[in-house]
Specification:
Layout lengths: L15 H7 L2 H4 L3 H17 L5 H20 L11 H13 L1 H4 L7 H37 L4 E6 L2 E7 H26 L18 H8 L8 H6 L2 H27 L7 E2 L18 H24 L13 H25 L1 E2 L1 H7 L7 H10 L4 H17 L9 H7 L13 H7 L8 H20 L10
Antiparallel strand pairs: 1-2, 3-4
This protein binds arginine.
Length: 472
């Protein structure tokens, strides 16, 4: 049995079951890179400040390099008795270099250490996910550009409402993910402040140079209050919230892919590589991956609520409850990354059945608003026109016809102004083209929107290094 690094004041070893209960190593081993980076920065700073010798600092950084190589190569022995990644690495360092290794933890606590590790980890993952979101945004734009003239029914209440350009619908998705990009940027900035040097909770009596370690680790600032530094996990909530809105958007998109790929809609066909079969029904081709994107949303929402619940009511400063922050955060980041990849793949490979979309856009009396608008151009108040066209819809419905199939007599009986109506103005292309308000579905406006989307994506890609730090 190994002895804990904190065993000095204890007369008995921890209960074995409690070791398992208390250990975070099975989860936090993933922080090894960040932990080693933090320890190296701390050791160099201790030497620069004359707290430890240059020689010891060199032994520490070299020893940590060897440990990193061992972990990378898969021949590092992670032992549950070490409790967490911080102890695992420190014990291995001491085993390797002896007393120099015993000097590493001078002026440091696992409390500022773990907060530093998590912030460094989040800096990396939030950037990666923001980049992943941008790849999806680019795929959406390409799909829109490849299908500039395709028209499909637009829905409200999942009832046919007014026809829209397919590209316009896709751009609505694009803007959802643009906001998610912004949320990851915010989460990145929230992580960008160094807790190192806060020590256990009160700061340290050693002349620690917090600015130096912050700069070496790539943080743009230090957290100004040592208590806040070790107990703040808001930056994780920001990341989890960014994951949550992103996966909500992915889930809504997935729901549309599922509906659209059904025989009833038939708007798209998912590629074989992004579909699965049935173990009993030979004919089936199921949109499993879209369903999983939708289904995994619950996990991420749960991860967010889980951390909120852990943080609620915690007194300052560090409490062991905070160890529970990691599992959900890792799960949410991993799950989202997979869901983004799956969605990107489905969109990049699906077939657009434009004829089906167009056929679908013929039904549902979707030119009714335009018919009413025509009467408005002849001077009728909109409410009157609405009622009158409503009655025409009822007539068409009862006789199993479309609005365009009503006879001239029927129209004239409803209102003599219809004498001037040109039937082609009720065609879906025309209905779409009329909606020229800013942000509307008319092709000219959608073309304009595409340009805007491209320039936004370019700006966001350029801002991916998220340079400016947030004020803390
Ligand atoms: N494994 C711990 C965590 O993840 C590290 C900090 C432990 N600090 C302590 N005082 N026990 O939160």
């Amino acid at each position: 049995m190994s002895t804990q690094l904190w065993a000095g004041r204890f007369e008995a070893a921890p209960d074995e079951a409690m070791q398992t209960f208390g250990a975070s190593l099975p989860i936090d081993w993933r922080l090894w890179r960040e932990d080693i980076a933090g320890s190296r920065a701390h050791a160099r700073m201790l030497a620069a400040q004359g707290v430890i010798s240059e020689q010891d600092a060199l032994a520490i950084t070299a020893g940590l390099g060897r440990i990193a190589a061992r972990i990378e190569a898969g021949d590092f022995d992670f032992r549950i008795a070490d409790e967490d990644i911080h102890m695992a690495i420190e014990s291995a360092l001491i085993a390797d270099i002896g007393d120099a290794g015993r000097r590493l933890h001078t002026g440091r606590s696992r409390n500022d250490q773990v907060a530093t590790d998590m912030r460094l980890y989040l800096l990396r993952r939030t950037r990666e996910l923001a980049e992943r979101i941008n790849r999806l945004r680019a795929t959406i734009l390409k799909l829109a550009e490849d299908n500039p003239e395709v028209i499909l029914p637009g829905y409200t209440h999942l009832q046919k409402a007014q026809p829209v350009l397919f590209a316009h619908h896709l751009l609505a998705w694009f803007w959802m993910f643009s906001r998610d990009f912004g949320r990851f940027k915010t989460a990145h900035r929230a992580a960008d402040a160094s807790p190192l040097g806060a020590a256990a909770l009160a700061g340290s009596g050693y002349p620690l140079d917090r600015q130096m370690t912050a700069a070496e680790l790539g943080f743009s600032q230090v957290i100004p209050n040592s208590l806040d530094a070790v107990s703040d996990r808001d930056f994780l909530l920001d990341a989890l919230f960014a994951c949550t809105t992103t996966v909500l958007h992915l889930s809504r998109l997935a729901e549309e892919l599922i509906l659209w790929s059904s025989e009833e809609f038939g708007f798209i066909t998912l590629a074989d590589a992004f579909s699965t079969g049935s173990s009993i029904m030979p004919q089936k081709k199921n949109p499993d991956f879209a369903e999983l994107v939708r289904g995994r949303t619950g996990r991420i929402v749960g991860d967010l609520v889980g951390l909120i619940t852990v943080l609620k009511g915690l007194p300052l400063a560090y409490n062991k409850d905070l160890q529970e922050d990691k599992k959900g955060v890792f799960d949410a980041l991993d799950t989202l990354e997979l869901a983004l990849g799956a969605t990107d793949g489905m969109l990049a490979t699906l077939r657009v059945n434009s004829e089906h979309m167009f056929d679908g856009a013929q039904g549902g009396y979707m030119a009714a608003t335009d018919l009413a608008d025509f009467l408005v151009t002849r001077g009728l108040p909109f409410r009157r026109a609405h009622e009158l066209v409503g009655r025409l819809v009822l007539l068409a419905e009862k006789t199993g016809r479309r609005l365009s199939q009503l006879t001239t007599e029927e129209l004239l009986a409803a209102d003599e102004n219809f004498a001037d109506l040109q039937p082609e103005t009720l065609a879906v292309e025309h209905v779409v083209a009329r909606r020229t308000t800013e942000g509307g579905t008319a092709p000219v406006r959608v073309a304009e929107q595409l340009l805007l989307a491209h320039s936004r994506l370019r700006e966001d890609a350029a801002a991916l290094n998220f340079e400016d730090g947030e004020e803390h």
